[in-house]
Amino acid sequence: RNKNIVITGASSGIGEQVALKVAQLGARPILMARSREKLKKIAEQINQQTEVNCLYYQLDVSDLEQVKAVFEEMFQEVGSIDILLNNAGFGIFDTFEEASLGDIENMFAVNVLGLMACAKAVLPEMVKKSSGQIINVASQAGKLATPKSSGYAASKHAVLGFTNSIRMELKKKGIIVSAVNPGPIETNFFDRADKSGNYVKSVQKFMLHSEEVANRIVKLMIHPKRELNLPWWMNLGSVLYLL
Ligand code: NJP
Asked: CB of 59 closer than 6 A to ligand 1?
């Protein structure tokens, strides 16, 4: 309640659902993503259905200068934030032989450097007041790699390495750092990740809905812990299918 929560990747999927849930609980979601029209619609829906004044900012997290400028503008408008949900990200599933280095570079630019840039942008204010929470969305692919996801898995391993390192640095400064490791969830993610549709077909019956995942992330905001794994057994199924 009465918290300011920045959500990157808020224009669809997990980010959108978390925004709707926190607003229902009386916290203000501050939405960020590239699709301005989608953000506008979600903010309008929240402002009509709840008491909170939802704000949104167009942002491509892979543009590091833009991240700095947009967070500065956001801080000028809202003053202080309580939580950063670092959720923007994407994957492209291919064998490493078929994968393009350009796609892998883009995944690192968004999933890793973009996420680090957003964390860096909120730190001065959180350190100053000795409180705050940073939640980085990684993946089960960041814990146990699967075939056909070398670039994506590597980028999410990087997210977990980053998260584990800054957790230790920031604990003594009063800032809580957590990771979320989802397995397959029914979102737009797979439109890009799995163009053949074969992966989705094989795991569809195990897929989580973004609403369930959002509920668990909101719980994590209220009762922080180091990692949220959703669901823990999913990765095994993926490995068996893809081998
Ligand atoms: O996917 P989707 P999810 N700058 O596609 C935004 C991880 N995950 O909710 O910019 C800023 O519905 C994009 O917005 P837009 C996954 O790796 C998922 O499932 O307008 N924003 C959209 O709002 C990711 O980290 C699964 O196109 C950028 C959002 O990101 C997180 O969960 C499994 C951006 C993506 O929403 C949310 O993904 C897993 C940029 N450059 C991990 N590029 C899963 N779904 O199965 C993208 O292990 N966005």
From this structure: yes
Six-digit token pair at 147? 């075939």
| 53 Cα: distance to centroid of ligand 1 (angstroms) | 24
- The fold of 4-242 is Rossmann fold (3.40.50)
Residue 131 C-alpha to ligand 1 middle, in angstroms?
27
- Span from the CA of 172 to the centroid of ligand 1 (angstroms): 31
Query: Cα(159)–Cα(8) distance, rounded to whole angstroms?
Result: 15
Ligand 1: which atom is nearest the Cα of residue 184?
Answer: 46
DSSP 68-133: HHHHHHHHHHH---SEEEE-------B-TTT--HHHHHHHIIIIIIIHHHHHHHHHHHHHHHT-EE
- Sequence length of the chain is 243
The residues assigned a catalytic role are 152
Partner residues linked to 58 by β-bridges: 33
Nearby residues of 47 by Cβ (< 8 Å), 6 or more positions away: 53, 54
Burial of 119 (0-12, 13-18, 19+ CB in 10 A): buried
- Would the pTM count as exceeding 0.90? yes
Residues 139-181 pLDDT 10s: 988 988 788 899 999 999 999 999 999 999 999 999 999 999 9
Pairing of strands 175-182, 185-186: unpaired
Q: Name the residue at shortest CA distance from atom 6 of ligand 1.
A: 9
0.85 surpassed by complex ipTM: yes
